[in-house]
Predict the 3D structure of the following.
Amino acid sequence: MATIDVFDIKKNKVGEMDLSDIVFNGEVKEYLIHEAIKVQLANRRAGTVSVKNRAAVSGGGKKPYRQKGTGQARQGCIRAPHYPGGGVAFGPAPKVYNVSMNKKARKAAIRSALSLLFKESRLTVVNNLELDKISTKGFVGVLNEFSINKTLVIIDEANRNLELSARNVKEVKVLKSEGLNVHDIMKYKSIIFTQEAVRKVEGALQS
């Protein structure tokens, strides 16, 4: 079974903890990681872009001039695409981009991503992340103790002081354990877990 050091927020080692090999030390399946990220990004697309075609543009209910005898090309409507203020030809229309991924594959993708970071020594576990007060400077000081930046912080429960202290720090994101996802794991260089968050993640991803 894999083990990892546990630190306090001053980077003093306070112990070790065992990690589930299934969740943190398993086979890294890159194709699943890629698929999960693709699904997440596709599902974020709103697909609401739209323009008006000639049927939707107001006005232009009659011919601008008679069919014959003017010497000009025949025209049926001043709202045709080649007229100023006319409808758009072949413009974009609303579209649904949603794709799905089954639950087992999604969990396996998260396990692969976590295993990748563990094997590259990019996981840090702390006994807790309780701050005395809301302080961006104080939170940055904690990150500096560990010499890390661009990090994902995973907590086990709501932590108002931490969340408000971290929200203005560039390239840092705080998530509760149930919100853990492949895109965020791969986006950040490292992850900081609380001990309880590790246990919750293991419980959710064991099967």
User: Anything to note?
Assistant: The radius of gyration is 27 Å.
